[in-house]
Amino acid sequence: MFMVASQPGELASNHPEIEKIHRDIAEVVHRVERICQKNRATPADLPNPSYRAVQWLQFLGQKKWLLTHLHALREFQLLSGELIRSKNLMASKLEIRITHSSFLYKVQQERREINFEINEGFISAPLEMKQMLVQAALNKKNRQFSKKIRTFTQSPEYLQVTNALNSSNTSNHRSFLGKHYDLKNLFNELNQEYFAGKLEQPRLMWSARSSKRRLGTFDPQSNTITINRRFDREDAPVLLVKYILYHEMLHQHLGIKEVNGRRYAHTGAFKKAENRFKDQKMAEELVKSIYR
Fold first, then answer.
1. For the CA atoms of 166, 256, 191, 240, what is the dihedral angle to 10 degrees?
2. Hey, where are the domains in the chain?
3. Taking CA 231 as the corner, what is the angle to CA 226 and CA 233, rounded to the nearest 5 degrees?
4. Which residue of 36, 120, 182, 286 sits 20 to 30 Å from the alpha carbon of 111, by its own alpha carbon?
5. Mean pLDDT to the nearest integer, 215-226
6. Exposed e or buried b for every residue in 250-284, given b needs 16+ CB within 10 A?
7. pLDDT value of position 1
8. Residues 82-107: pLDDT tens digits?
9. What does the pLDDT look like over 183-199, one tens digit per residue?
């Protein structure tokens, strides 16, 4: 957590402490890039949590966003303190973090300590929206703002931040290579066959660990398709690997539909497109055999 001064005028780009933070961030990013280069890789080859951290640091390495981040952090500190005092919430210690996370906000409370983590996308939000976020997170009896908070994630203010966070997306050089399957080659085959070669190649990765339940995922924020490492083996049918990859490519292509604040990924259009996959019945049987 960055600790900042209490007076708004003190947060200036040439402030010695902010200059030091800026230099430290630049040094860490440079060190990571240098290590990746030595291994003939890029930051995009790192596991998702590490890659998101690098994206976040590259984002904060821009003074405009660093200052916006610090201003927002101070506002959230003040708003949270006011709510805790007004509602007599039991808290002797409050820690607030604003990060490049996959969730909108998260609160953990243990005894009298509150840890409040907020998505970076809210740093440019109006004060009223920040108040709603604090109310929804810290006052669990008040959930009336949840829909408005989710709606805000489609606003220009929120999207400007998330686009800036992801603007440093680089292609990965190694992590799509498995012991038996090359996800890049399979992506190119499927792209030509089902998308006329027009689907932009995302970051393709094998998962860091094998999972018993999750076959694959698409993360729109980092534009990453991850396939379960358990299928990178000689006895895993290529039909199954292609079908899982195709499923995630459809998520990339069709996106998420939002209705009344609820998100739907497997829409009618999605299922219709999924049925276009050749030998789909056989592929579905292979999927079912995994869960059996």
1. 110
2. 8-166, 183-291
3. 130
4. 120
5. 87
6. bbbbeeeeeeeeeeeeeeeebeebbeebeeeeebe
7. 37
8. 887 776 666 567 889 999 988 899 98
9. 999 999 999 999 999 99
Contact 245, 201 (CB under 8 A): no
pLDDT of residue 255: 83
Calpha distance 184→181 (Å, rounded) = 9
Q: What is the three-state SS of the chain?
A: CCCCCCCHHHCCCCCHHHHHHHHHHHHHHHHHHHHHHHCCCCHHHCCHHHHHHHHHHHHHCCHHHHHHHHHHHHHHHHHHHHHHHHCCCCCCEEEEEEECCCCCEEEEEECCEEEEEEEHHHCCCCHHHHHHHHHHHHCCCCCCCHHHHHHHCCCHHHHHHHHHHHCCCCCCCCCCECCCCEHHHHHHHHHHHHHCCCCCCCEEEECCCCCCCCCEEEECCCCEEEECHHHCCCCCCHHHHHHHHHHHHHHHHHCCEEECCEEECCCHHHHHHHCCCCCHHHHHHHHHHHHC
Q: What is the pTM of this model?
A: 0.76
Query: Residue with structure tokens 């006329």?
Result: 196
Give me the CATH topology for the region 183-291.
Zincin-like (3.30.2010)
Which tokens is 134 given? 């604090």
Supply the pLDDT for residue 86: 76
